[in-house]
Backbone:
């Protein structure tokens, strides 16, 4: 089953193409990484997938729905953590979890999620008083509280210390095992390689290559994904 299907997606800003004919498919239960230099069109593509931007042309289907017209329906089935996700400074971490859990028809036990994500001691802390890493963890937990079929994570571990990164990888591993489809935008090649079944390499608003990390490295004659970029 296909979870995400993108065909000839195009999006320009002020006449300049940011995404210039992107096509790819992601199977249900698959973890796909998107890598590429700054400005390659990764975030714009992801924003079209979650219904935050309307494509100029091309077709996008996520869980069989068009995000541009079925965004609300889709929002209940996907979890999203974007680069510039934020909450009001004064909302407490526990309040945010309760609130987000109330949005979804089959939400997870948010107290257990708090424990899993090492957030238990922060329940009464205001979002604005959390450290960068703690904010990141809370936003991730919020993306998962609705028990989504698909999660979209843009810059999953940016700003986390090495230990928190490792722990986050383990939690993503558990999500994978549970059969969740995961789309992961990352600037960390080790992360993309460790977590992804397949990786899409974006260059100049296009998908320059798409394959397993091993296939990509072999094709580029590179020993790591850095050499594929
Ligand atoms: N809201 C916007 N208005 C105008 N131009 C934009 C806007 N958002 C993105 N762009 C431009 O579109 C191009 C693609 O940007 P995008 O953020 O999709 O790339 P990216 O691969 O996610 O980059 P990064 O790794 O830096 O996040 C860039 O040239 C960027 O300057």
Residues:
């Amino acid at each position: 089953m296909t979870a995400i299907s993108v065909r000839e997606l195009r999006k320009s800003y002020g006449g300049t193409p940011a995404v210039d004919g992107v096509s790819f498919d992601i199977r249900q239960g698959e973890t796909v990484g998107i890598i590429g230099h700054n400005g390659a069109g990764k975030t714009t593509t992801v924003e079209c997938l979650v219904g935050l931007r309307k494509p100029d042309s091309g077709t996008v289907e996520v869980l069989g729905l068009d995000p541009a017209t079925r965004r609300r329906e889709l929002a209940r089935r996907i979890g999203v953590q974007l680069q510039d996700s934020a909450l009001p400074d004064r909302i407490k971490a526990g309040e945010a979890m309760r609130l987000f859990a109330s949005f979804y028809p089959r939400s997870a036990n948010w107290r257990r999620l708090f424990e899993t994500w090492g957030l238990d001691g922060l329940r009464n802390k205001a979002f604005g008083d959390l450290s960068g890493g703690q904010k990141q963890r809370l936003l991730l937990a919020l993306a998962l509280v609705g028990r989504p079929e698909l999660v979209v994570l843009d810059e999953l571990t940016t700003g986390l210390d090495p230990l928190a990164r490792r722990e986050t990888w383990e939690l993503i591993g558990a999500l994978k095992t549970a059969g969740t489809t995961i789309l992961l935008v990352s600037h960390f090649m080790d992360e993309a390689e460790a977590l992804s079944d397949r990786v899409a390499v974006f260059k100049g608003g296009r998908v320059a290559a798409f394959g397993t990390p091993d296939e990509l490295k072999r094709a580029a004659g590179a020993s790591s994904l850095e050499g594929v970029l």
The helical segments are 42-49, 71-75, 93-103, 110-116, 132-144, 162-177, 189-195, 213-220. Residues 13, 18, 36, 38-44 surround adenosine-5'-triphosphate (CB under 6 Å). The two ends are 29 Å apart (CA to CA).
